[in-house]
Amino acid sequence: MSKTVSQEDKEIILSSIRTIPNFPKEGIQFKDITTLLNNPEAFGRLMNHLEDRYKDYNLDFIAGIESRGFIFGSALADRLGIGFVPVRKKGKLPYTTVAEKYSLEYGFDEVEIHIDAFRYKKEAKVLLIDDLIATGGTASAAATLIEKVGAKCVECCFILELGFLNGKEKIKSPVYSVIEL
Ligand code: AMP
Fold first, then answer.
1. Which residues' Cβ are closer than 6 Å to ligand 1?
2. Which domains are assigned to the chain?
3. Distance between CA atoms of 124 and 150, rounded to whole angstroms?
4. CA 139 – ligand 1 centroid, Å
């Protein structure tokens, strides 16, 4: 049985995250995790929980979504003694990439991964991580990329989930959110 966060940790983590109204535009309640990162107790409890949950998953890699997924993903990869892979916005990765488009409110965006990101390990077991899932478009495209380069997205993990947007319905892999709002 996979471990979920304790009530005490949940309260400490949640109270360390601040909400900025109307950023970056009118009507958005932006969840600012910089106040979690600069709070060693909250950040430490979060990382202890993630390490505890994922230590027995036999993961091969963690993939993090630009840019806040890099912070949690690389810290967790180091704790688990496995590699970290960045999923980036179009045009940022220097080597040969595979790309996936996803739709936004207006138009579309695109994410990319290096073709050799998982070192061609067949069916490499990958955990995808980001700070927050809203509509699920970004994470669903990132999970597709993982599969496109021959690896397996065994779970998608988010620190926060905006549950009312039903983003996880877009994602084929299992989804774990530390805190659902
Ligand atoms: P989505 O593709 O709609 O699930 O959006 C997820 C991406 O947008 C993540 O990388 C989040 O960091 C960012 N994001 C979306 N909504 C918010 C929000 N209210 N506060 C902070 N980040 C957000």
1. 28-31, 65, 68, 130-139, 167
2. 57-180 (3.40.50.2020)
3. 8
4. 10
Would the pLDDT of 77 be above 80? yes
pLDDT at 2 over 90: no
Residue 120 has pLDDT above 80, yes or no: yes
The catalytic residues are: 68, 105
Please answer whether residues 64 and 83 qualify as being in contact, where contact means their C-beta atoms are separated by less than 8 angstroms.
no
Among candidate residues 49, 56, 105, 94, the one with its CA nearest the CA of residue 72: 49
Pocket test for ligand 1, best of 110, 129, 138 (most atoms within 8 A of CB): 138
Instruction: Compute the distance between CA of residue 19 and CA of residue 9 in angstroms, rounded to an integer.
Output: 19
Nearest to 117 by CA among 149, 152, 139: 149
Residue of the CA atom closest to atom 12 of ligand 1: 132
Q: What is the pLDDT of residues 127-141, one digit of tens each?
A: 999 999 999 999 999
